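Why do we care about 3D structure at all? Because function follows from shape, and shape follows, mostly, from sequence. That is the central idea of this module. The next example makes it concrete: a single protein chain, its amino acid sequence, and then its structure expressed as tokens.
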Amino acid sequence: MTNPRILCFGEILFDYIADQPGLPLEQVKSWTPYPGGAPANVACGLAKLGIPTAFLGCVGQDELGDSLVHLLQHSGVNTDGVQRHPTAPSRIVYVVRSDTGDRTFAGFGDLLTTEFADTHVQADQLPIPLFETAEFLVLGTLELAYPDSRAAITRALQLADQYYMKVLVDVNWRPVFWTDPTIAPGLIHDLIRHADFLKLSEEEAEWLFGTTEPGVIAHRLGSVEGVLVTAGEKGCAYSLGNHEGKLPGFTVEVEDTTGAGDSFVAGFLYQLCQHGLEEIASPAIAHKAIRYASAMGALTTMRSGAIAAQPTAAEIDAFLYMEQQPG
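And the structure:
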């Protein structure tokens, strides 16, 4: 297998998505399991686009863990960095849906958030050879909530720095994962200081920076090369290099918004790999890259689940071609 160009670090899990949209957790009658977890979604999305990618994280020594590792391998994702915990279970998270397809994380069943295998990823087991040849490290913030995985993030950042990798941070704020959400902002801001590229939702941007303007956030951070602020169906805004722009959302038939932001990240990283860091800072290429990322996110909402719903490069190209046609 080709050496991975991108490493995605964090959680892989099963989303148990409510079969009855519009009902609260206690009234849902049945659930359908879909594999997910933001970094894993990004890894699978990139692999589907043909970018050599590895996933780093920890799952249980259980049937769920076996199926998640198999899914990564079947998707073409390198699993050399997947650790297996002998007793902690692979994570599941219950997700309720609104009538319009928007989802809310509703808890972890009978287990505490600290009891799952992903919280125990070990820093000293991160495979250094993967870092030696990769170009990008993708991180979320959920694993900052637990001591072991927080230490592993610190180690991953040290290796990324040592081997001159670029770091993309997707805030992906999920308070249900934190036993003490009040410590989150400080830890997240510390992580963001290591980011070359930062992706946030409008709500996250407002929460962490008091603004949804990517140019303002980029200026405040100083050293960041790109800030992307997404707003679901309303579109997104971005600051890349010294150029800022906004794109409206694509109009599609939404079935399930799970993983749309992760597909957006995968599409953006794909464009980074295609064009390189210097080109992506030019206004025309930046606009093209964000439009591509937006299309990938939009297409993912048209099917259920996160990974299964991700489009191929051919599907994205066909969609963008049709969007350009008059009438």
